[in-house]
Amino acid sequence: MFTFAYPALLVLLVAVPVLVLLYLLARYARKKKLAKFGQYESIKDLMPEVSKYKPPLKLALEVAALACLVLALCRPWGGVHSSKTDKEGIEVVIAVDVSNSMLASSTADNSGTSRMRAAKLVLEKLINRLDNDRVGLIVYAEDAYTLIPVTSDYVSAKLFLNSIDPTQYDNQGTNIGAAIDRAVKSFTPDDNIGKSIVLITDAEELDDEVGAIDAARQAKKNHIQLNVVGVGSPTPVRIPTKSGPMINPETGMPVETALDENLAAKIASAGDGIYVNASNPDALNELEKQMDTVKKSALETNAYAVHDELFTIFGWIALVLLLIDVFILDRKIRWLDKITFFKKETAVILLILVSAAGAFDASATTNRKERRLVSQGNELFREGHYLEAGEKYQQALKLEPESKEALYNLGLTYIRRANAAQSDSLRQQLVKAGAEAMQAIAQVVKEKPNLAADAIFNLGNIAFNSEDYAQAVQMYKQSLRIRPEDEKTRRNLRIAQKKLKNQDQDQDKNQDQDKDKNQDQDQNKDQDQNQDKNQDQNQDQQQNQNQNQQHQQQPDITPQAAEQILQAMENKENQTRARVNKSNNGQEASGRSKNTKRW
């Protein structure tokens, strides 16, 4: 019976008639163009190399290859055959001690994790490792009970495991021999299947120590391996109850319990197994190695139907048809006597093709090396080795100087190294180098918009850390124009705008303080000038007072002295008046004499 796994993909076969229609349209257009030069019968002799039958043949090959590819995609099935798988493993029965002593601490501290809890953790990890094995579960105290018969249902085993509680069993005690006997009876009677018992206990055999060892030996005779997992501490600890520690009714003292590793080892040795302590980190590994020594056999055989896959047949047919199409040319074949492989034109074409292939291969090799170096650098960057990562990026840039990814990542290493730099000069140099790399990446918005947006975002972060909040706001806005959906950039923009607003307010406040300070200085200067003016006025007043005091201190003139002074002044005035008159008379005489001579 022929069927398809994906029949809906058969709709792709509509491409076959579409391809035929396109071919017919192309042939029709070709004939119309040739008709411009004349009738086809007349001009066909001008095209001796054009084949009349090869184009339809190539079309048929291409259409058939396309149809085979579509059928291969639909995953054709030819029929059904049965298949079987065998599941090999062993049977494992786990016996869990549920006596009251399992409520005690698994460590030397009375408040530690209970032995029951520790046993459940070990059992859960053990069941997870039993991939193809069957598992059974029994619990025992004075008597042994089967919780789960041997089964492959690990999920149910874990559920029953978590429900185990020592307080639910009234008939208390520790009868290890009964537990081993119950485990032996829980296995299937098939002797060809490997069997193993895992006994989890604190090894406090209160009933019959010899009976436990004899039961282990009997299990060994039945080809059943017995392994013991001890839980607890050799240091005695108290058994807790809801009302406090358990009390011995005979002595009135708290009951104490301890792990008997000697008895546990004897039981394991008698059962051809090993003893491990649950507190040992390698306990499960050692137990698993020991259980691997048990012979495995086929436990289950799964039979299922499998379809015969035919898609590979159609895939090979399509490949062969395409290869044939490649080697069929549109022109006529003039076989070997008409073909010259060493024509000058052919040699030039071959040389060009070989050179192009070599250049392409060299370019591809360079690109692979560059990408490998960038990947190595990215791994070092994620591990925090920024210096080594930068070296890888620099090597990639030497191979491919136009690699924007390598340049961007190199800039990131500079920025990360700047954050951890100890000296200010080194930090400034690294920040400058990182900023230059980011500025170069920011120019390739059209080619790599996301990378450019990241670079501009980093430039905004650099400006923000330098407290140039205006520049940071500008960079964040520019990044959002390229990638508006970036919430991280939008959040940084809001923070930078808030910082810029606070910075402007602080500057205005400082300007106001400087203005107030200048006004205070002018006021102080005016006060000093007023004080100087007042001091000058006070000095003038003091001088006037001193002068007045001097005038007041001059002695009075006597009448006789005054009379003498007036007489002297009158005599002096008379003498002066006489000299003036005399001078005037002399001038008049001199004038008359001259006039007389002139006449």
Describe what you observe in this structure.
The chain is an alpha/beta fold and 599 residues long. The chain has three domains: 3-81 and 311-339, no CATH class; 91-243 and 254-295, 3-Layer(aba) Sandwich (Rossmann fold), CATH 3.40.50.410; 361-502, Tetratricopeptide repeat domain (Serine Threonine Protein Phosphatase 5, Tetratricopeptide repeat). It contains 19 helices and 13 strands. It has helices at residues 15-35, 40-43, 54-73, 115-129, 154-162, 176-186, 209-221, 261-270, 283-292, 311-327, 335-338, 344-382, 386-399, 404-420, 424-441, 449-465, 469-482, 487-553, 559-598, and strands at 3-4, 76-89, 91-97, 134-140, 144-151, 195-201, 224-230, 237-238, 240-241, 244-245, 256-257, 275-277, 297-309. Helix 7 (209-221) packs parallel to helix 8. Residues 543-557 and 584-599 have low confidence and may be disordered.
